[in-house]
Amino acid sequence: MIRLVYVGALALVVGTVLGTGSIVRSAAQAATDKEQVARVARDYFEGWYTADSDRLGRSLHPDMVKRYVDAQPGGRQVLFSVTREIMLEMTRAGGGSKVPAEKRNIVVEVIEVSGDIAVARASSSEYLEYLSLAKCNGDWVIVNILWRFQAAAARSR
């Protein structure tokens, strides 16, 4: 009888230790995922500003779509979309490379990572973008972008 209690207590202790291990492992994975999401967002923005289409391309899912609400004459608003291929073409043509590095002011914030999906906010002196990411085949990639010009940049256009 005492032996069964001891085995039961030992099993409880082992179960608790193993459970804690998976919590620690989960926290470590979450931190790694957050770092990877931030790196992908930086690769996207810095790839654009350095006209590095390979770097930008690695950050984008093949079916990525980038969208913004465009105000038309008469007040009508249209959802404008850009595909991954168009982004790559624009990057190869120079992207944002005309903006001096000291004026880019790139900031990346990972808002949330939940399992294999994440949301990040990336901004520069020109753009504010919300990035939806997914972990596909073990790699984080951007699947959707909603963006707008920064207020100061919009006034100068």
What report would you give on this structure?
Mean pLDDT is 85; it is low at 1-21. The chain is globular, with a radius of gyration of 22 Å. It is built from four helices and six strands. Strands 2-1-6-5-4-3 form a six-stranded mixed beta sheet. It has one domain: Nuclear Transport Factor 2, Chain: A, CATH 3.10.450. By secondary structure, the chain is an alpha+beta fold.
The CATH class is: Alpha Beta
Main sheet attributes: strand count, strand direction, barrel closure: 6 strands, mixed
CATH architecture field: Roll
Strand order, main sheet: write it out: 2-1-6-5-4-3
Roughly how many Å apart are the termini? 82 Å
Oligomer: single chain
The count of strands amounts to 6
Strand content: 35-45%
Number of helices: 4
Poorly predicted sequence stretches spanning 5 or more consecutive residues:
1-21
Average pLDDT metric: 85
How many domains, in number, for the residues? 1
What structural class should be given to the helix and strand makeup?
A: alpha+beta
List the helices and strands in order: HHEEHEEEEH
Radius of gyration using CA atoms only? 22 Å
